[in-house]
Amino acid sequence: MDSLDRRHFLVGAAGGAILLRLPAEPAGFSKRALRELRADVRGRVVVPRDSSRLVYNTRFDGRRPDAVVHVESTADVAAAVRWANRFDVRLVARSGGHSYAGYSSTGDGVVLDLSRLNGIRVSGGRATVGPGAQLIDVQRVLTRRGLSVPAGSCPTVGIGGLALGGGHGLAGRRFGLTSDKLVAARVVTADGRVRRVDADTNEDLFWACRGGGGGNFGVVTSLTLQTHRARGAAYFFVSWPWSQAEEAIAAWQRFAPEAPPALTSILSLGTTGGGGSPRVSALGQYFGEVGALRRLVRPLTRVAGASLSTGSSTYFTMVLRWAGCLDGGFAACKRSTRSSFFAKSDYFDRPVGPGGRARMIDWVERRQRTPSLGSGALLLDAYGGALNRPARDATAFVHRDMLFSLQYLAYFSGAAAGRASRRWISGAAKALRPHASGEAYQNYIDPDLDGWQRAYYGANLERLREIKRQVDPDFRFRFPQAIPPAR
């Protein structure tokens, strides 16, 4: 296995300027409002024909914002918010455009495109970054200094949305979530005020920014993150024959959440896109020596038919490996590719027994039997270690006592395959729901999820709603799964 399966599914879309001829007037507000918006901000204001350059998931290309503001500064964002208040216009912030549900665009309102707020400054062990900075750019700057922050693997995700909703990845059990590293932020709230938030200033809003989800409490225009030393790491890949999938799942879930915190691992069950059997494999990153890693993963290699490979590299090479750009390098990571997909997630707080493992296998095999539908996968991310160290109410991110998360993915091309993919992913999640905790990952936001408020935020929901009431009582920042203000 040459690269992380997640990269096969999560190929990012880089943000960029929209070079489109402007219609005479947007659909949602007057020519006067548009003139005032252009006068109020320094950044370019355009009226796009579609959303195809705004969203990664092509399912949402049909959404056309009334306008897009390519903001150039925090002052631009504040001016746009005040303008929206005058004209009663909905605002949506976009960092990287990777919202699984297309919430970084809208068919009713104005998008604040933050892609130009992409600066990266490192000082005193901290990195201050703009929300539009892509993960690959952040890691490139940091690793040149022997530093890193825990983050996901998709290279073109904007760090703003990732950090606000959590942000787990292959350094997670060692260093925690991206949101755990947030030590300060600059936020423009719904009244147009620019607020600094940290542990001593606007403490409630700071708490909400660490896991409360992007787009809920204001527009974040700067994030300061605590970095960690990371000059290199070791890695492993292990695969098994599909006939051993049940035992491989059992071995992985016994091993991965309880492994030393220096080791983070992901298990993948997925279709191969053709005939034959699906695939089952695991991979991981270890902050230590290769020899020690090979000893640690023995519980996985004891499963019959296991094939193991290991190695080590500098940390930026490791970042490229997990991003699927190892051969093409940094330039390949920056290339833009978009896809059509459905996604769901579940958290598991207890091991999945034989019945649940059989259901995982059955649903992957169902997808494999119809290759024309497209790719399908179940990806299990181990928790434990630094991910579970904070209390459930220490930050807004509540999922602190889980064994692993499970991401369901279905990629497709064409309307018929899309309808079938939606049925497949809904069926797989329903089949495994009796085995899951009832919680779900807010960064894998799912517009079809019933009970999403409790699934994403659990017992932290009431505090989040009260903070929303304080900073956005009129629900200016809203989308279908936005946290509503307390009443």
Shape: globular
The number of strands is: 18
Terminal CA distance reads 52 Å
Biggest beta-sheet profile: 7 strands, antiparallel
Structural class of the secondary elements? alpha+beta
The percentage helix is 25-40%
How would you describe the oligomerization state of the chains in this entry? Answer: single chain
Description:
This protein is of the alpha+beta class. It contains 16 helices and 18 strands. The chain is about 30% helix and about 20% strand. It has a seven-stranded antiparallel sheet with strand order 15-12-14-13-17-18-16. A five-stranded antiparallel sheet has the order 5-6-10-8-9. A four-stranded mixed sheet has the order 1-2-4-3, covered by helices on one side. The longest helix has 18 residues. It is globular. The N terminus is likely disordered.
State the gist of this model.
The chain is an alpha+beta fold. About 30% of the residues lie in helices and about 20% in strands.
